[in-house]
Amino acid sequence: MKKPIAGIMAVMMLTGCALNAPKEEPIIMEPTEEATSAITQVEISTDEAKENITTEEEAAVATTAEEPKNGMTTTFRDTPDLTAFPTFDAFLKDEAKAHFADSADYRIKDLEDAFDLTADYTLQELIEAFEGSSFALDGTNDAHVDARLLDCGKDGANELAVDVAFTESKFDDHAIEFILKDTADGLTIGYFKENMFRNEEAVSSDGAVSPAGAASHDIWGGDYGYLDAELRWHYLYTEYYYLEISGYAHSMESVGINLDVSGAEWKGIQATKYAFEEDPADRTWYTIYTLCDDKGAHKDLSIYDEGSYYKNAFDAAGIATYSPYEIKELMVKNILRGNKSPITLEDVTFSYNGNTFGPSTNWKEIVDALGYPERYEESNYGFVSAEAGYRWNLCYPEAMASDYGFEAVLVNDDMKREGPATYIDFYLLNTTPTARGIQVGDSIVLLKEKYGEPDSIEPFYNTPDWCYVTYDGGTAKLRFAINNYNEIFSITIDW
Questions:
Q1: Cα 193 to Cα 225: distance, rounded to the nearest angstrom
Q2: What are the sequence ranges of the domains in the chain?
Q3: How far apart are CA 400 and CA 382, in angstroms?
Q4: In the chain, is it the N or the C terminus that has fewer CB atoms within a 10 Å radius of its CB?
Q5: pLDDT score of 16 more than 70
Q6: Is the separation of the CB atoms in 479 and 454 below 8 Å?
């Protein structure tokens, strides 16, 4: 009989690894003619007369000490191989132009002063137009360009993210990032953000958008959302994290709520508030508080119980508070709300090295197709435990590897490693994607795009800011573990 998997998975879940792309040698892009002027003639006055200096060498010598820096230099630092993307390649070489998306569905804000949003721009024209509009830049700031390929929405069609960092800006870490998509209407900019110290955003390889950078006045946060396969913006929630409880109390005073945090008991208390409405005028805030010290957050969850000192104080001020898991559940429900896509038999099968495995697969079929994993004997033949039957696993391509493709967990109720009583209990997928293309490390937003609203959300063992999201197909189900960064930590096919 098949046994529940309960606490076994906690010791079996492993994370993957990523490799850094090799860097290319820097390429220098010369300034445009508008940004530079060639010296062809310099006149020097003497007591007797004016003499014309006509040679370039003499002119350079005569003006070296007093000629101001004129224009910028654009340097490419880290760019991908764009052989398969000639349009992106042409844009980075200043041989192609891009235009801004013209719909409010895109995350493009406050650019009217910098750009003509109806015009087309080369890379260098974009850089110079932005530099010319920013009071933090003076026209002499060099630009360092990095670029990377994205796959927003994981539809297999790549976008190009371009990051331009400016030197000697009045702002620390001053940069712009924009994302291009090659469309039927030409290169389209569907995302544009000015980043600077304490006011930054990050875009993941699959299009998830989140706040980044350092806290400002002990407050950190911003909007979370994602860019879909067409680069359209989807808002998810807003978070503000207060490193000092006094900052949170001050923010509540601005809306007429008085929370007294003057007592010594409030030392080490931090607060975070969340909202799920994009328009600030419509927001309802949900608050969680945390007790921290030099070692981080305390694990004692009793501070959230009815009657605790902190719970009483928030209640007295009229502020509804939530435990870490309650906030996690609320957040995930809001992120994944919407259309639901039914789970089919195909969804609980997966492909590996040209083979298809699923609930109906016999463990011997896996061995016949793939052999035993590498280092199988070294891993004590995949032994897991001797509780609730003899449990062992087949982890491919290599046992004990963190970047494994998939793992089949097997059980033999006769307490033998192999034999007729052995059956597959469940699968864990890691670098191997689901039938809809989701794999460990992906953002939760891809679940919304690919699967929609789940059938259930449950706690993840004793980790209150993690959870399980389950899509139940009746005879089998897909279960995704979501970590505190709202990334997929594990994928289980169970039945």
A1: 14
A2: 27-34+70-205, 244-322, 340-494
A3: 9
A4: N
A5: no
A6: no
